[in-house]
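Hi team,

Below is the intake form for ATP-dependent RNA helicase from Ligilactobacillus equi DPC 6820. Please confirm the fields before the structure is written into the shared record.

FORM ID: S-0412
PROTEIN: ATP-dependent RNA helicase
ORGANISM: Ligilactobacillus equi DPC 6820
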Amino acid sequence: MNPKFEAKFTAEGFTRLAPIQTAVYDDLRQGKDVLGLAPTGSGKTLAYTWPLLEQILPGDGVQLLILAPSQELASQITQVVRTWAQVLDLSVLAIIGGANVKRQQEKLKKRPEIIVGTPGRLLNLANDKKLKLHKLQAVVVDEADEMLAQKETLADVRDLVSRGPADSQLAFFSATTTPVLDELHRWFGVDVVVKDVRKIDDTQGEVMHYLIETPVRKRTDALRRLANLDDFAGLVFVKQTSTLKEVTDKLRHHKVPVASLSGEGRQVERQQALAALKSRKIKLLITTDIAARGLDIPNLPAVINYDLPRDINTYIHRSGRTGRMGATGMVINLGNEHALRNFRQILRTGDYRVSPAFLIAGHLALRDEIGYLDARTGDPLDLQTQTSKPAIKKNKVKNKAQVDTKIAEVKPKRKKKRKRDQKNKGMRRKKQID
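The structure came back. Fields below:
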């Protein structure tokens, strides 16, 4: 590692390299094309940042291009890379959709060495001759399984790569494999060195996986009850933006601190929503798979699948938002009996251990032979005491005089009531006779 990086490495609190960082370092430094496979939250960004930054010359224009599938991930990568680029006097610019394009064009005139962005906006600027890639040394495709699985995005990535020199180095990183990653030679004309550390990586903390059986119409209520748990916050996944808006509106109606994250909102609003979850100003952030891909939310307590994922790869990426870099977390899956039964079949292909859980008396609970346990702490729950109605407090009687006084106070009221009832009864009889 560059000596300047070593000093910062220690200052940042690192003690050792993660498996993916060790696996790809030498190959990337030597200019080889690489496919890196590692679990979510295992340090993939730094795995390509350190060796590729060492090859860049300050003041020589764009030499490193990093592609991401979403604005949030591109912004996140930019922050990480910039921290280390400053050590070598290199500048980093984020080029993403949703931001002011004219401002981006002005910043490109300052000739940054590293560009991080989303393919669509980058391609637009390249077509307008605002982004010049003739000095490109390396291209990184982050979240490559998602980026290259879609034909349109695959075409955009290939177009951008073709605008650089023919010998530009290519690096692909992902947490899961898809068929397209086995065809990189076909699409990019390169033979990659595959570094797969998923089975040996130990950076992820303990993550528990729970199933909560609930009718479809009651899932939003289950979210409300989860939000009311102490010290709870979660990233909630839905499939469609229409569902996202509907769920968000319902939770706000019930005064739940919540925000949404989608590809349709303004960049500022999306950043504010993420910041609110990180600072725990909100309890729940409702999002879609694309919007949340690759996000790093430190110490996120939970991921909640409002809509169950369609396959194991989607589940891996969703659950990877919690339990990152040694932290603990949980994944809560909501569905009715039929949906959960089918979902178990999907989870078996990923070797996940799942447990039925219940929302009872303000707790997320597990059931064992003896009773219920708190799912987060493992402590026994005395639900009978917690759910029982509070006893009605009665005034204690100290002596017989007090009793006689109370009876005396009550008797006249009862006597008056009896006289009134008799009078009304007599009047009704008289009417009947008449």
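SUMMARY LINE: The two ends are 112 Å apart (CA to CA).

Thanks, M.
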